[in-house]
Every structure is written in C-alpha cells, then in structure tokens.
Amino acid sequence: MEPTRRCAIVGSGLAALAAYATLRHGGLASNEIAVLGTHEDPTEVWRVRAAAIRQRQMRSESDGHLAAAAFPGLAVRELVRTGSLRPMVATVANRYHPSVEAFLAHAQDVRRRTGWSQSFTERRVGRITAREGGFELDGDGPFAHVLVATGHPGLSRPGEFSGAVHAYEPHEYASRIAIVGAGMAAATEWLNALAAGSEVVSIRRREPLRRPLNVPRTFFSKRGLGAYHSLSNEQRAAKLRELAAASFPPGPAWDEPLAQAEREGRFRVELVPNGAEQVICATGFKRGFQEDPLLARLVTDNGLATFGRWIVLEPDSTIPTLTDNSRTLSLAGVAAQWAFPAADTIAGAKYSARAFLRRICRTR
Questions:
Q1: Which of 81, 91, 149, 187 has CB 3.0 to 4.6 Å from 11, enough for a Cys bridge?
Q2: How far is CA 215 from CA 138, 227, 292, 308, in A?
Q3: Where along the chain do the CATH 3.50.50.60 domains lie?
Q4: For residue 298, which of 271, 323, 263, 322 has the smallest C-alpha distance?
C-alpha cells in the first residue's frame, strides 16, 4: 500500500493537543491527522495529578498555552475576561502565572475549536514499524509522518518507598507526614500538608535549586538552543542531568510558610521518615526511553543511536535514521529533551510540533 500524506500523532496528552493545534493552524484538515491515544480528554491525566497536589497556579508563564499562535496568550485572555491590566503588567516582568482553572478551560476550548475529537481514536500503540516512505502503527497505516508524544513513562517511587502514596495520586494528609523529594511537587506538598495542620518531615538528599522555571529561560531562546545543540554527546547528557535537578520557584509565598513552620517545630529535613504515619513520594516520573515500552521497542527494532537514557535526535526533534525526504519520525514531550531541554513543557511541545509541520509542508 502506498503511504498517504496523512500524519499521525501517537499519544493523547497535553503535548499531543499542542501538536494537534499546531498542525491544524498550519493548514492540515482534521481528516489528515490521526490521533491515537488512551484518553479522549487530553487534560485527563494532567488534571488528576494537578488536583492530587492541590495545584492552583501554573509554573509556566504567559507563553505556556496550547494555542498554536503565540498571541494572544492567557494573560490577554484574562484581561478580556476581567478587565484588569494586572496580568499584562505581570507578563512584561515574567511574573504572570495563570490559574490551573483558567489553563484547563483554555485546553478544552482548544480541543473544541481544533476538532480534536474528529481525529482521535482510542488505541494504545505498541509498535512503530518503518516502511519505505512511511510507518505502520500496529499494522495501521502507513503514515508518511509520525509524531510520538507519549508523555512521561510512569510515576517514580524509590525502592525503599515502593508502598508509599505518590504525590500525583489522590490522597489526604495524616498528622505526621514524610514527603520524599525536593522539586515543585514536593514543595507544593509541604505547604499543603502544613496548611492541613500536619507535621512535615522533608526527606531529601540535597537542597533544591530555586529557579522560576524548571529549565532556565536561556534554553527557550534561539541563541541558548544554538549553544546547546553545539555540545558533544557527553556535554549534552551532562547538561540534561544538571537541568533535571530538583527545583521550585523563589519567593516569599514559599519561604514564609516554611520558615514559620520551622519556628513552630512542624517542618524539618531528615534522611529517613523516622516513624511518620504517612509517606508521600513527590519524586516525579520515571526517566529514560527504556521506561517507555513503545520507545524501547523502537530503539531495539531499528538499532537507534542512544546516549544514556536519551534517544539521539536532530535539533528539529526527528530521529535521523528514520527520517528522510519522504517520511518523518519525530519525538515530542519529555522524550525529545535531546533536541529541546525543556521538551516536557508546552513550549517544548510546540517546538517539536512546529518543526514537524515544516517537514510535512515540504513533502505535501
């Protein structure tokens, strides 16, 4: 069978929705795009996790929205809705953080406007098979262009805490809690548990970094990316490990409640739980292509180049040995960090999607 010009997105989370919106904005019709994933609502998994840690605001700033065009962002939408100039002023200073409620409403709006449901099929893809001019997805296709956006491969629980509840799973708070981890989820859980009246022990191996975004802003710029792409494999892997260090934003909203709790004897740092009634793992996600069955099989079947836990990609997020003038296989989301260090953000998803769209347009 000759491959069609139709493309496929494998995955159905926020990165997939950002990619879909980008392709639709770029001129592709909904019947030219197949979305194969496990959740028709692309916010479902993220929404449950955000609700579990009682997240109220996004860490991302005004550009962290799902619409294909940079303007208008969520700050403009809030201005229109409320008439307040405060979001726009905050945006100028990189201080605007939309509410989770506003972000979710925006995501549903993007989903409706782009026709996501017309392209979506509920299916978990187990194997991507390369064919001349395209790819088959569990025998379906072939598709000339495929973007894999399967998201994080699962929640991480250190072996010694394997029976603990994860922060991203629904839970309440006991009176004495040990929270494992030191990143954004852990910091959010410290404040949640303290607000619930709990005594909190922070279990962590090192002090967290304090930075506004999980990756410094320089890596979102053309110059910063150029410098990153010029690194050797060893240097790039070292940089990605460095950027993966636990962090949460600076500021009194975090510092003051923790300082007050320390004075009251309700917050301290330990190496072990020390008899806590409840252990919460705020340890994020499993890391590496090896943890994703689809990507691990793709590497094995095709002998793909890897380095450490990453699949080696071109700067445009494509897999070089499976991409040519007639076909494209790209990664988006966390699996694309080799191309874009902040690939697991909305901005990162759109970076991969825009490059993917450019390839489709060249071969139409």
A1: 149
A2: 35, 15, 23, 20
A3: 4-154+286-363, 159-208+246-281
A4: 322
Residue 43 burial class via C-beta count within 10 angstroms: exposed 0-12, middle 13-18, buried 19 and up? buried
**Tens of pLDDT along 117-171?**
999 999 999 999 999 889 999 988 899 999 999 999 999 998 888 789 999 999 9
Residue 50 near residue 37 (C-beta atoms within 8 A): no
Phi, psi angle pair for 186, to nearest 5°: -65, -45
Report long-range pairs for 314-320 (Cβ below 8 Å, ≥24 apart).
314/339, 315/225, 315/229, 315/339, 316/352, 316/355, 316/358, 316/359, 317/343, 317/351, 317/352, 317/355, 317/356, 318/355, 318/359
- Measured CA to CA, the distance from residue 343 to residue 152 in angstroms comes to 11
Tens-digit pLDDT profile for residues 260-285: 999 999 999 999 988 899 999 999 99
Strand partners, 43: none
In angstroms, the CA 223 to CA 95 distance is 23
**Which residue from 244, 338, 329, 348 is spatially nearest to 15, judged by alpha carbons?**
348
CATH code for residues 4-154+286-363: 3.50.50.60
